[in-house]
Structures are given as C-alpha cells and as structure tokens.
Amino acid sequence: MRGVPVPAVPSAGPAPRRRAALRPVLIGGVLALVTSCGWGVSGEDGGRLPAAPTGVTADAGSATSVHVMWNAIEGAEVYEVYQGTTKVKEVPASDRMVDVTRLAPSTGYVFSVRARDADGRLGPPSAEVRATTPAAVAADGSPPTRPEKAEGRTAGSRAVQLSWSAATDDQGVTSYDVHQGGTKIHSVGGGQTATVVTGLRPGTRYEFTVRARDAAGNLSPDSPPVRLTTPGSDDGRATAPTGLRAATHREDGAYQIDLSWVPPRTDGVITEYEIQLDGRTATSLVYGGDAPREKAEYSFYAGTEAGVTHRVRLRAKLPDGTWGGFSAERTVTTGEQAGEKGD
User: Fold this and answer.
1) Do 144 and 169 touch, CB atoms closer than 8 A?
2) How far, rounded to the nearest angstrom, does the alpha carbon of residue 286 sit from its chain's CA centroid?
3) Of 37, 159, 245, 295, which one has the greatest count of Cβ atoms within 10 A?
4) Residue 153's Cα: distance from chain center in Å?
5) What is the pLDDT of residues 79-113, one digit of tens each?
6) Predicted local distance difference test score (pLDDT) of residue 247
7) R_g over Cα of the chain
8) pLDDT at 144
C-alpha cells in the first residue's frame, strides 16, 4: 500500500503528541488514504469528541446471541452498542465486549459502537459489522463436552496465550467463552481453539477457564483451569510486530520508505501503528476499514536526497488501548533497493 507523501522527519524540538496520520478507509470498495490530525472530531463547544471505535467484530455466540468486541478509545467513559439504529447495550469504558441476546435464529444483524465521554458527548459510530445467527435446534438440551488439554503461557507482562482441545456436540460447537476467574472476558468462534488475552497487569496471578457453547446456548462444563503469573517486567516482544522489512523507491522526485510486517497476534484487531524514524515518531497509521491480519504494508515520504541512511521501527496499539512492544529496528538507505539490515 502506497501512502500519500507526508513529511517523515520531525523538527528539532520535541515530537508532538499527535501527528498527522494517514487513515486508510474503504470508499466504494476501494482502499483510500485520508489524513487525520486528531483522535476525534470537534464538538459544538470546540472540545474533542471521542473517536469512532475501531477493531469492531461480531460473531454469533448461539442461535439467539452475538458477541461484539472493539478496541479501547482514548477519552471514552461509556460505550454504546447499536443493533441497526437501535441502542441495545451500554457498558463502562473498562469493558470492550458485550453479548447481544434475545435475537432470532438464522438472521443477519448489523452492529456498531459509539463512545461517550465524561461530559456526555457522543462520538461518531464505528464501521458497521455483520453477523448471522445459526439455525435453532429443536429441543436440544445436551451441552457440549468439556474442552480438555487447556494450556497457556505468558506473552510478556500484559498478555497470555491460551489453547485447548476442541469440544464436541451432537449439533456442533458454535463458540468458546473464555473466563478469567468467574468473569467472561472473551469469546471466539467454534472453529477456533486458541486465543491471546491482553490488557493484563505485570506481576499478577491469573486463572482462566474455557467453556464451549452450542447453537441452543447450552454451555459445557469448565475446562481444566489454566493458572499463570505474568512477569514483573515486559520486554515487549510478545506484542511487537514481526518480520519487518524495509526498502526504498523513488517517486515524483522524492524517496519513499516501503515497509512490510506481520501484525502481532492479539485478542482483537490491530487498527493503529506508530512508525518511528531515527528514534522519533515519523507518522501514525490508522486503518478505518478492514485492518490487515496476516501482512501489512505501508510507504511514506523520506526526503529527496539519495544515500541517506535511516533507522526505522514500529509498534502497534493493542485492542486494550495500550502500546505493544517495538519491532526489530531496520536500517535503510535512500536509493538502495535492499533494506533489511539490523537485528
């Protein structure tokens, strides 16, 4: 993906807190780039409204429920969840997920999320997401079997990776619910037997269990508990983008730095990245449409002079609103094609 040229080298003074971002958005099915200079839009009083939530996903939890998740938004006090144009749920900012219940089987639904700040100002809606509930199964009173072989490991000080063996059900498993202590914190589709939970605290002991759910809403017994203690320090590697590659090309009399990387695995969608050039923030990349999950690419302006060597790295904003670790640093020289130097 080639970006609109944006000056990449900051001034000699301190880097500003908010920099212009190139925002990819889908317009008529085409990915376009739009410059965004702030986290939200201005309200009537001149204040900054909360931004539209990003990373919104919706997955059927049963024949009558859908699990909706989203990424944390700065300045949010409350999140409002809409089914079509009707508000159906309201949760505090500490929550980033909700189950919308009392739905009809075999029906498609559209959901969106809006953030509200402490002054009661409502930000714009997120992109709409769609989910279809499965067909109901008549007189199904049999729950799925218990997920076995539940395992986990810490992934830095703020995340854990969990996995389990697939449960079985006479009508099929629709989803898996992940519980932290006695609280449901996450849900994944019935074909998924692993996930990453973020937003944890360093040096803290956690206990996780998994339950399988079928289309009728029957829940399995808890999986064996997974007990983990997050380390007291975080080297950031578990939440850092991997496979970073850097090269340059010349376009319209100037050099562009071309990056590609693999997004970190998290329990949500990564929609924002900070790109650093020579140790300072050069630009922010915010996806307004479908964010890439397997491979991401981006190009940005690096000046007109050939033979200039730059250091580049990037990090992702995690679904819980915190920044993950930085990728490995690469060096790239304008005018040279290969740019994978570095550890």
Assistant:
1) yes
2) 11
3) 159
4) 20
5) 999 999 999 999 988 788 899 999 999 999 999 99
6) 94
7) 22
8) 93
The CATH H-level (homologous superfamily) assignment of domain 57-132 is Immunoglobulins (2.60.40.10)
Model pLDDT for residues 276-319, shown as the tens digit of each residue: 999 999 988 988 767 888 899 999 999 999 999 999 999 998 87
- The structure tokens listed for 243 are 């496979």
Kindly report the length of the chain: 343
Residue type, 183: T
For residue 19, give the nearest of 272, 264, 259, 241 by alpha carbon: 272
Q: 27 is written with which tokens?
A: 């317009």
CATH superfamily, domain at 151-229: Immunoglobulins (2.60.40.10)
Please tell me the pTM assigned to this model: 0.58
Instruction: State the DSSP code for 237.
Output: G
d(CA 48, CA 174): 40
Q: What is the DSSP letter of 239?
A: G
Residue 166, amino acid: A
Q: Confirm if 120 and 190 have CB atoms less than 8 A apart.
A: no
* 3-state SS assignment for residue 238: helix
- Contact (Cβ atoms closer than 8 angstroms) between residue 316 and residue 268: no
- The residue with tokens 């399988």 is 212
Q: In what order do the strands lie in the sheet with 272-277?
A: 30-36, 21-27, 280-286, 272-277, 309-316, 330-333
**Greater confidence, 1 or 139?**
139
CATH number of 21-37+238-333: 2.60.40.10
Which of the pair, 101 or 23, is modelled with greater confidence? 101
Which amino acid, one-letter code, is at 141? G
Each domain of the chain, given as residue ranges in start order, spans 21-37+238-333, 57-132, 151-229
